[in-house]
Amino acid sequence: MNDPKWYSQHVVKAIEIVGVACGHGARDRNCEFGPDVLRAADLLERLRARRFAAYWCDTIRPGTAGATNLEIVTQVCGQLAQRVEAIVRRGDFPLVLGGDHSCAIGTWKGVAQAHRGQGPIGLIWIDAHMDAHTPQTSPTGALHGMPLACLLGYGDEALIRIGNGIRLEPRQVCLIGVRSFESDEAELLARLGVRTYHMEEVTRRGLKAVLRDALAIVQDGTAGFGVSIDLDALDPSNAPAVSTPVAGGISQSTLLSALPQLAGHPALLGAEIVEYNPSRDVHATTARLITDVVDTLVSGRDCVQSPVQIESRYGAHHYDPLPVVLVRGEGACLWDEHGRRYIDMISAYSAVSHGHCHPRLTRVLSEQARTLAVTSRVYYNNSLPPFLQRLCELTGQDLALPLNTGLEAVEAALKAARKWGQKVKGIPENQAEIIACEGNFHGRSIAILAMSSEPQYRDGFGPFPPGFKRIAYGDADALTRAITANTAAFLVEPIQGEGGMIVPPAGYLGRCAEICRRNNVLLICDEVQTGLGRTGRMLACEHDGVHPDGVILGKALGGGLLPVSAFVARREVMEVFTPGDHGSTFGGNPLAAAVGLEALNILIEEKLPQRAAELGDYLAAQLRTLKSPLIRELRGRGLLIGVEIDTTRVSARAACERLIDHGILTKDAHGTVLRLAPPLVITREQIDEAMRGIRAAFAELERTIRHAA
Ligand code: PMP
Predict the structure, then answer these.
(1) Which one of 314, 353, 532, 607 is least enclosed by Cβ atoms within 10 Å?
(2) Average pLDDT, stretch 565-581?
């Protein structure tokens, strides 16, 4: 996430709206209801419907009762300036909805403050009036007649001081649409050099041309510019609901056809729409106009709400995804939101061994979904039995217990082992021990984490249940030493996937099986990741000729469509469960069973284990030709391959990100190992394509590192 390219591509700006429910600058205070009315109308919804990231940040309301108008406006503008400054500093786009026009003092001082150091800001002020009175020249004393003068440094001291007294540079300010003013104001602005486009010039030249002119002025030597729209600039026939209507203004269509010049303008720093007086908006025409103006102003801005932004805003932050938003999958390929195609070299950690959206599986899924999906195990259903039968046949086990996710099947295995230990082996109550391995991954429930050796997985989640032991992985003698009279089971992964694609020494599993048998200890293999063809055999333990007492399956059992898992075991083990001992609402539901059965059938009919063996050898051979100094070791079996990266030179995460640039999706394990575990349906040509990407990515990484050295 620290890569600037990632930010520029994916972290888009939000539109943050601040309402100013204050009319104390005007004589008729009804415009203080403007923001609430607009909020209740469909303004936000409309922006969001167009996929803009739009939020209502705040509505500022006058605080102290009994204060003078000046005090209230000063306080409101001070608060507004802070709010707006924070929005700009966040990188978002401030949209201020008044209130009377005196709030402009807060808006633009806030924007200017945020850009202090990058240069002054320019301002386009669209208004029927000049708003350039000072308390000395104002005939009414109303503060909404003064904000422009104040922003230029003229007027009441308390207002000028807001935003550390920051001022706008008059030559970078343009006033458009003026048709009602006093000579003092005109004189002040002319003396200061503010470019004023009177309404008659706007009519003569057209608003588009005037705006084009103004754009050049407000950008000259500035860090960017803002636009402040007083709705009375519009003709009252189009915008009747304003505080001080003045006949003969800009027509709605003229405004809406000229504003697109500003839409998406990279130098547009913020916008403000003021003086909406809902008490006069009988048919809500002005509210609709405001929505149209906002819509036009923000369209083209980089504020489109991306899936990444919505997820980081509303989702718990327990993942740190790589920067791709996937929208479609087929076989071994995935496509992102921009239509870019990738080769999937991780296949959801082996869950998508059948490839994305396998047509046979999607057909079974939709047919079964239309027929019968979920019944619970309170009744029999006609879809589960053939699935259980096939599971037992293919794994050589006696009985199967269907569940949903991998960890649930692991939990079922742990419970079976404990109860077997007590009821069959005769271990005293509450004394059964289960031995697991260093570096294991069996899921993340609290009981399973009791076996984990990974500090981060455990940190903060204790206490953990007792009854678990850990031994070194790959060391059969360590198993012998750890077994006691109370040992019920040894739980082991034939290859540690999450642990970093660790392949134990040849013969390890066979020796463990022998040790377990001699000691009357159950051997339970967690084949959630390695099973169902991934390593070139139906089960990875078959490579060692091992027939465990229990096997845990998950991931690919759901055919890449659903969570489907199972614990399959010898009769003696599974029969410790009696009705009511264990269960799951969704486990074994007709939909999952139908998909699971079809997934098993496809594995056999499409010879996926054989493919994994052949293509795994092919991929490994290709990878060996890379001979990159960034690769420490290649290991694995079948299409479960780990590429250990020399992390003193490059992190595995950086390698993943570089691979994305070359159309390869994978994920590191433990920050050190790249996993290459594509769907088993991947073709040789797709492996060649993946290799071209991998080769190019590594060549680039090597070059970058050489330059850096
Ligand atoms: N066991 C192993 C070997 C696994 O790799 C995983 C998941 N990576 C699990 C269990 C847990 O599976 P799930 O995420 O479906 O609970």
Answers:
(1) 314
(2) 97
